[in-house]
Please model this.
Amino acid sequence: MTLHELDRLLSEYLRIPDFPNDPSQNGIQVERSGGDLRKIALGVDACLETIRRAADQGADLLLTHHGLLWGQSEPLRGLYYGRVRALMESNMALYACHLPLDAHPECGNNYGLAARLGLRDIRPCCEWRGYTIGVTGALPEPLSPDDLIRKLFPSAQGDCIVLPFGKPRAERAAIVTGGGGEEVSQARDAGADLFITGEIGHTQFHTAEELGITVIAAGHYRTETIGVQLLGQKITRDTGIETVFIDVPTGL
Model:
């Protein structure tokens, strides 16, 4: 399968044309010269470390949640030049998928975490830039914040920010991964007594307290590793192309 054949497959599966206002330029951001794809690396960020490690793995394509192009052209200099140069020197293409991967009902970041928790009666919730990207659902049993963290991220005990303003044992959760902290009010409006996100800001502390909702901020990076891994599994099942996840955690 060529790069452009995979692009057509992913564009349809991820519904990329349905997200024209996503600041990310979703799809192929850097091409490669010819040939079928034999190995695809997947990562969260198109940083130099991820690019180099993907090249070391012999990948023909790096597929990331956060790409290089965000709604505007960039001069090829500095850090940006270094990343593009590393891609081209290894003849490795770059493919980015931002909001379509957050919102996807099978391999999306939010639905992926909902499945890991075993949420029931899952419904979409929480809009960003006019797109509904989050999910809400009932927990299979009431759970404390510590119980939830153990289920979602077993190695993250003590690393997550917890604002314990809701019920001691939550019954309904809403999830918006990454930088979704500003959607805490929408989560409460959706009936959630617990909000799981990546980052929470200073101003959202008081909002959560006054709304009476517990917030777990598990880290932008950590909450967005699941989508690319699920997508990699989907690609391998459907095409037979080998995939590998490149883990470059930021601790944030």
In short: The two ends are 36 Å apart (CA to CA).
